[in-house]
Amino acid sequence: MSGTYRSLKGTKDILPGEVEIWQFVEKVVHDVMRAYHYGEIRTPALEATGLFARSIGEHTDIVGKEMYTFVDRGGDSVTLKPEGTAAVLRAFVQHNLGEQSGLNKLYYISPMFRQERPQAGRLRQFHQFGAEAIGSASPALDVESMLIPLEVSRRLGIDGLTLKLSSVGCEKCRPPYRELLIDALEKVASQLSEESRARLRQNPMRILDSKDDRDQRLTAHVPLIKDHLCAECREHFEQVQQHLRSLDQPYVVDGRLVRGLDYYTKTAFEITSASLGAQDALAGGGRYDLLAEELGGAPTPGVGFAAGIERLILVLSKKKLSTPAEVHPTVFLVAMDDASRRWAFRQAILLRSEGVVAELDYLGRSVRAQMREANRQQAGYVLVIGERELETGNASLKNMETGKEISIVLEDLSAALLSHGEKEKS
Ligand code: HAM
How many Å lie between the centroid of ligand 1 and the Cα of residue 39? Predict the structure, then answer.
């Protein structure tokens, strides 16, 4: 490492050699979203701070401690988006998408920003792919939200995932449950960790999620929302599970599942991987039937998920699955003099316009050094060009793998590369 500046803590450069796996994951995401018929949406990196405070919740860790919020030069408080759902719902309401179509199925691949303590699988700028289905209360869509990240994982060769499922109730059943929970927690309040004590009145359900062993023990028998759902939420939860069973999709009901965002109603879920360690959530999501209205739109039910791409790639790297290779030039044009260099440059531009990956030397290297570079880049073919070749219009094309050379007419270079490339592939 050298230089005056470093990338900020919790942020990462994705360099050539590593970016190919990102491109591959992104391609799989686009393919799966296409099959599930979700359309891509791109929202800005910056939003009004109020949007997130309102939707994610004032008393969540994200809003309370983790957002990159600043006052811009115009005096407005703006925030780098910590998640995608609020932004997508803002766009949905703003552009009246609900009036144009009964159901909007939208997806995104985007960087997100949270000022968390960096550790393996936890960054300050990270990337999610996610989807939101807005306009229907059908439990089938809750299940779609679970299946999409599972299908992406399956296509990437990742297995051993656990789907954890719960229901967090609605505005009818949650308030009475909350009181029940607070009553139970107050009995042990004095023994709870400081953090949990602070959460008791503001966000008591998060106490269930405490990593503190003592908190875990003390709350082992407190009432869980899944056992206190209203009839409508119970029925919805049952239907979600019926769909999963009929699809033979394994899942576990986890009554202590608590999501770090307040907008959820009914379904909440997480997909975890045992190979990830402490930050084991690969994806999370759920239903948010009140969010559109909360943001000033017409009451519109919705459900979605988001998955962490860094974590997905971490799982892939642990499994040592074969990842797509770096791109190697089909041909490297080695030039012997200035005139040949000009010819090679023109020829490379032409080949590239035809879709051939062509490379040449830009560093004024000797012929030998150019050959070494072609080798290092693992070029498929090398064409050496000099005065004689330009004069006669003939040259020899060397297959770098077999070492064989074939004579070609320079004018036919691209045809020769394409036909040999094709033959070798078949
Ligand atoms: P979330 O659970 O906060 O949900 O984030 C979803 C996923 O993003 C996590 O499971 C994890 O893989 C990844 N992730 C979160 N924080 C970090 C981080 N600091 N570093 C690396 N990866 C991270 C949401 O964001 C909701 N918007 C999901 C949703 C969509 N619910 C409904 N629709």
Answer: 20
